[in-house]
Amino acid sequence: MTTPQDLSPHGLAELRQRYRLERERRVRPDGAAQYRDADAEFGYYAADPYTTGPDEREPVRDTVDVAVIGGGFGGILAGAHTRRQGVERIRIVERGGDFGGTWYWNRYPGVHCDIESHVYLPMLDETGYVPEWKYAPGDEIRRHAVRIARKSGLYADALLSTGVTSLTWDEASGTWIVATDRGDAFRATYVINATGTLTDPKLPGIPGIEDFKGHTFHTSRWDYGYTGGTPEGGMTGLADKRVGIVGTGATGIQVIPMLAEDAAHLYVFQRTPSTVDVRANRRTTAQDVGADDEGWARRRRENYLRIVSGEHAERDLVADRWTESAGLLEKLLPSFRREGDREAFEAAYEAADAAKMNELRARVDRTVTDPETARKLKPWYRYACKRPTFSDLYYPAFNRDDVTLIDTADTHGIERVTEHGVTVGGVTYELDCLIFATGFNVGTSGVLSGKLPVHGRDGVQLLERWARRGPRTLHGFTTSGFPNLIQMGSLQNASSVNFTHILDEQAVHAAALIAAAEAGDALIEPSPEAEDAWIAVLAEGAPDHEWFHAECTPGYYNREGRGRPNGPSAYPHGAVAFHELLGRWRDESMGEVLRARTGPSRARAARPPHRPHEH
Ligand code: NDP
Question: Is 50 in contact with 96 (CB distance < 8 Å)?
Answer without folding.
Answer: yes
